[in-house]
Amino acid sequence: MSISKILNTLEKSWERDEILLNIKKGLEIDKIVNEFLIKNERQIKELNSLLRPEDIELLNQVEKLSTCESKLINKIKNLNYLENNENHHIMNKKKIVPPNRVSLNKISSFMINWSNKFVVIALLTISAIALSKQAWA
Fold this sequence. Notes:
The chain is mainly alpha-helical. It contains six helices and no strands. It has two domains: 3-100, no CATH class; 101-137. The protein has helices spanning 3-13, 16-25, 29-39, 41-50, 53-94, 104-136.
């Protein structure tokens, strides 16, 4: 059998949609690969016997390409996670306060006004006490 026929047979056996479905079902990657190797052992051995040194070098390059693509996918996934996390944080800051809750600005302005009134009342009380002590003296 020729290399191209073996590769076509193996490609048909390695259906990406079916592999993805197995991954979604929770099958381990090593188990999926081992099942493929067992199922296609004869074709893989035949392919291996037909490979020349330059074909093996090509396989090594394809393996490096796959590793590179895997790393790129991880970087993109992590970048998306960080951006989504930042966007979520920004959205939380910009959330509109529900009407049944008092906003922070209202609370702070209340505290400022209340403390100003308290200081004025305290000063008036101290002045009144001081004046009454002077009057009794």
